[in-house]
Specification:
about 250 residues; alpha+beta; Beta Polymerase, domain 3; 2 domains; three-stranded antiparallel beta sheet; 8 strands; globular
Length: about 250
């Protein structure tokens, strides 16, 4: 396997865009599961996100070079948001700045039709979480995140962490990130490990498209929220009544 550092250092290396578009599903799967992303390990006792923070420059460099080459070959036609790169700052206590994925948004033209294209490059620390997030489906993802929230965690494509929240998470039909502090990243090497940490039965990707499996997770979340209410804990009603519905509009 060619590492992305070798790819960057070889100016003669080209991408076969026609073949890539014809085998898009295979390419997406194989690239998404590539682990060699220029990771730098965290030291003992350190939040693993600091390793992801230190390797961020390598991921940014790879994505920038990829963007420029795809644009030069005519595959990318327009960048969204200026240069196409998403930039996010954090005000949540405990979050490690710059540890997230390198992310690009643009417009491509694989054949005769323009299409929206998102490219994300993750550190290995976040690999399992990103795979769960982008495997879907959306109902299963919402149910799983809702269950994690009921367990006192925050679950997203960049990890699982204990979380402290304040106030409501939805207002006037809009999502509000009400996290005020998070703990260190829970290290999970594989998707199965994430399920195990949360105490959920592992579901293969094809099983996550089965509505009953998502409903089972959502019901577990509702029961946990109800137990908390009976115990005198104030719980935002939108958490269990909206987020884990099949046609829910909100995220966690």
């Amino acid at each position: 396997m060619v590492t992305h550092e070798d790819w960057l250092d070889d100016p003669e290396r080209t991408l076969s865009l026609d073949k890539q578009s014809q085998e898009s599903s295979l390419s997406r799967s194989s690239y998404a599961r590539t682990r060699n992303l220029g990771d730098e390990e965290a030291t003992e006792g350190e939040d693993p996100d600091y390793g992801a923070q230190r390797s961020r420059a390598s991921r940014d460099k790879f994505l920038l070079t990829l963007r420029d080459r795809l644009h030069a070959q005519g595959f990318l036609t327009d960048h969204l948001g200026g240069d196409g790169f998403q930039k996010k700052t954090t005000t949540v206590q405990g979050e490690v700045p710059g540890a997230g994925c390198s992310s690009y948004m643009g417009i491509c033209k694989p054949r005769d039709t323009h299409r929206r294209l998102d490219i994300k490059v993750y550190a290995p620390q976040h690999y399992a979480y990103a795979m769960i997030y982008f495997t879907g489906n959306d109902y299963f993802n919402r149910s799983m995140r809702c269950y994690a929230k009921a367990c006192g965690y925050s679950l997203c494509d960049k990890g699982l962490r204990k979380a402290a929240r304040s106030g409501v998470s939805h207002k006037d039909g809009k999502y509000i990130d009400n996290k005020v502090a998070v703990g260190r990243l829970v290290v999970c090497e594989e998707e199965r490990d994430v399920f195990e940490v949360l105490g959920l039965d592992y579901k293969e990707p094809h099983e996550r498209n089965v509505s009953d499996n998502a409903t089972e997770v959502a019901e577990k979340a509702r029961r946990l929220f109800e137990e908390q209410r009976r115990g005198g804990v104030e719980v935002d009603s939108s958490d269990d009544e909206e987020d884990a519905r099949p046609a829910g509009r909100f995220r966690l």
